[in-house]
Design brief:
Length: 470
């Protein structure tokens, strides 16, 4: 079963530029075709290939033509399948450790432009103020229109400390504007945490990397220590703007809070390898000979009240966790509708040092929900409080359903969501536009974070109720 798990692992929202999107690699890249090759179509391909070689205005080498053909074949499937040349594949492998050069931005494509899915905390893109939904229309002096996503990514990557100018088109802003970013070696810290108040912990997961489960277990132990050794009364798990990452790390995070062997997620695809049920047990969240990092967790982690914060930037692996905890009635989901990426990508290395990222399965929550194009509906919808009413317009947020060639949801029109919001909380509209508060060095959460404060208030209320019931 472990070998099957190692073949399906990438559950992030898009292409990472300097933010680590860790993944598993398939050991099988040459599965035999089960159908005969379409000879007529291949003859047409060969004819076009020959015309380009003989008649194109400039000579084109064979490698360029073949790479372009493979690129087009994969990019035409869905927003997440892609071909990676040797350099890109190597970058992806390096990225599994959570450290490589770039801008720190999760991107997709829309109408031929690069579209920002989410900037990653503490990266050049985050510090420059890029926002989900921004369209990147120029890279330095080169228009993006007509580039593939891989071409755009390649241009945005580069040596640390070198500048790049992005021209941004933002809804609500009358004309494009330029932003200069300095490339950096991005060291993404997967888990951040602090004791928000006596008895109440806060954990933020920025991405699901190789060590996310271990770092989460360490955070829970430290929070108990900071709480004087006593169990926590409540925990806020912040998955906002978490674009996803490694599938088995998502299973490990959910397993920290649910009962052993509980179903966390299952996948369904065309091949036997793509049909899996992943439970909260070590064989599904550990890699290789890794020691079980959840074995020593204190018992209170299975019962502590939890509020999970999500928003439109919460995608894939973060949706797996929030969906599992929601279906298990283990946590209250709070925030705004999540991204809605319900597909899994398998990374297949090819013999010449290149690789492909291929969508091979859809995943489903334990209750059988596909969140593809839908996302996770919070139990309590809480709008962000650090922006104006106009900026809270949900039409300004990019989601899976906005991406070209996105997969359909197989349950559309036939499956009701597991929950509808019990409460909708909208902060009072400020008298003047409010800019997001910048955190002080060493801080992990703003005291003026409206959604966090609502989560903390709810946990305190639950604590009072539980105390009265005893």
């Amino acid at each position: 079963m472990r070998s099957k798990l190692q073949k399906i692992g990438l559950v992030g929202a898009g292409v990472m530029l300097g933010a680590a999107l860790t993944l598993n690699y398939s050991a099988v890249a040459d599965r035999e075709a089960t159908q005969a090759l379409p000879l007529d179509e291949l003859r047409t391909f060969a004819e076009v290939y020959g015309k380009i070689k003989s008649d194109y205005v400039e000579p084109v080498d064979d490698k360029t033509l073949i790479d372009s053909a493979i690129n087009g074949m994969l990019s035409g499937l869905d927003p997440h399948s892609a071909y990676m040349n040797a350099d890109e594949f190597k970058d992806l492998q390096v990225g599994t450790q959570g450290e490589f050069g770039g801008l720190g931005i999760e991107v997709g494509m829309e109408d031929g432009f690069v579209k920002v899915v989410s900037p990653i905390d503490d990266t050049p893109a985050f510090k420059a103020g890029l926002k989900p939904g921004d369209l990147i229309i120029k890279l330095d002096d080169t228009p993006v229109k007509g580039m593939t996503i891989n071409d755009a990514v390649k241009r945005m990557r580069g040596k640390p400390n070198t500048p790049i100018v992005l021209t941004i088109l933002r809804k609500g802003v009358s004309k494009p504007f330029a932003v200069t970013l300095i490339r950096a070696v991005i060291k993404v810290k997967s888990v951040k945490y602090k004791l928000a108040e006596n008895g109440y912990g806060y954990i933020r997961i920025t991405q699901f990397q190789e060590r996310t489960g271990e770092d989460l277990a360490h955070a829970l132990e430290v929070l108990q220590k900071d709480n004087g050794g006593a169990p926590l009364k409540g925990l806020v798990l912040d998955l906002r703007n978490d674009p996803g990452g490694l599938l088995n790390s998502a299973v490990g995070v959910a397993a920290a809070f649910v009962k052993p062997n509980s179903l966390v997620v299952y996948t369904d695809g065309r091949t036997a390898d793509a049909k899996m049920k992943l439970n909260a047990s070590p064989e599904y969240y550990l890699r290789g000979n890794q020691a079980d990092y959840l074995k020593g967790l204190p018992a209170w982690t299975k019962t502590v009240p939890i509020v999970v914060l999500v928003n439109g930037g919460s995608a894939s692996a973060s949706e797996i966790v929030s969906g599992a905890l929601q279906d298990d009635k283990r946590a209250i989901i709070m925030g705004t509708q999540s991204f809605g990426k319900g597909s899994v990508q398998t990374v297949l290395p090819l013999g010449n040092g290149t690789g492909i990222k291929l969508t091979t399965a859809r995943y489903y929550t334990p209750a059988g929900r596909s969140i593809q194009n839908k996302g996770i509906t919070p139990d309590i919808v809480v709008e962000e409080g650090t922006v104006t009413g106009a900026q809270r317009d949900p039409n300004l947020n990019i989601r899976e359903a906005d991406l070209d060639r996105h997969l359909d949801n197989p349950q559309t029109g036939t499956h009701k969501p597991a929950t509808t919001p019990a409460i909708i909380i909208v902060p009072e509209k400020p008298a003047k536009p409010v800019k997001p508060e910048k955190l002080e060095p060493g801080e992990v959460i703003s005291k003026n974070d409206f959604q966090f404060n609502q989560a903390l208030s709810l946990l305190k209320g639950l604590s009072i109720i539980r105390a009265r019931e005893k």
